[in-house]
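Please review the protein record below. Tell me whether the encoded fold seems credible here:
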Amino acid sequence: MIQIYTQLQQGQHWLRQYQGCQPIFACILGFTATGLIPGISAAGATPAERQYTAIADAEFLVNGPQPTPKYPLPLLEAGASPTLISRAIVEALDLPVYLFNAGLPQSPASAAIDLAGVPAHCLTSGKALPLAVVKQLFAQGLDWGEKLGAEANQGYLLISECVVGGTTTALSLLTGLGIAATNQVNSSHTHCNHTQKQEVVTLGLKRAGFLPLPETVDPLALVAAVGDPMQVVAAGMAIAASRKSGVLLAGGTQMLAVYALMQAIMHYYGVFGKPHQVVVGTTRWVAEDPTGDTVGLARNLTGVPLLATQLSLAASRYPQLRAYEQGYVKEGVGAGGCAIAAHLERGWSQPQLLETIEGLVARYSGES
């Protein structure tokens, strides 16, 4: 139920090491005005609704189905929020959850650890975040990674995200770090909008003075120019946690960008971490997305094992879940990482996962 797409031996070693272990679940929420560009994302039917996607997903992740949520889950073009998958597994495995506000326009309805970040401006400005805020968020990431890595003890830390427009800021980060990522990233659309993303990224990097690419790039300055607040928190958290525990970066394109950022920070600033303790884990819908090349992107990075749950929703009785098999939504809020955790800790296969997810959807739909 878990396939290793890159770095087979390292991935196998990681899976063996953490089989039977319960992870700690950290979800980092952020916002970038890049997500408001018309057509850039399908994580919310309109730009206005996309301002609330992260806080709605977070509220559901923590509370599950409620009669009157403060922020209802956003309507999507098709499919259902991946937080339904994550919440079902978090609830079933009784995972400890830490929610982090790295920079949102509104405070979440659920209790979240406020990292004193700010929402990012659109990356086309070339001035997404103040550098001082980026440095402060990185320090917070290191601090929390140290704490959660110690708490995980012999287990691992599952780091997830919710940032609408985050695959576009991921592309900008990867490009700025000199990694070939054109036409390789994913999106919440059924067919990735590569041309639009590339135009947005090129404009932002040019305005920030990162095109043509300089010989040496300060990775924190790059985040300040064209990134989002989640990226640097996740990178810092992964670096520090890797010293004491395993780390599963739960996501696709965005977490591959975080892995690249983590390595760049370690090299540029001489920060110590154990990257061999870190893997990226996602869904089959991302890893095998025919409109992107996640596996090719992972191969362009240095030494990252890319794992994916082989969860299928093709046999679901709910059309909003079957939509995942048509390429809608694909991933988010650590959905793929949670499924990997269920395989690892409980040995769950397809039937248990589907039953658990559908049970939550039934409650959410008012059927039980």
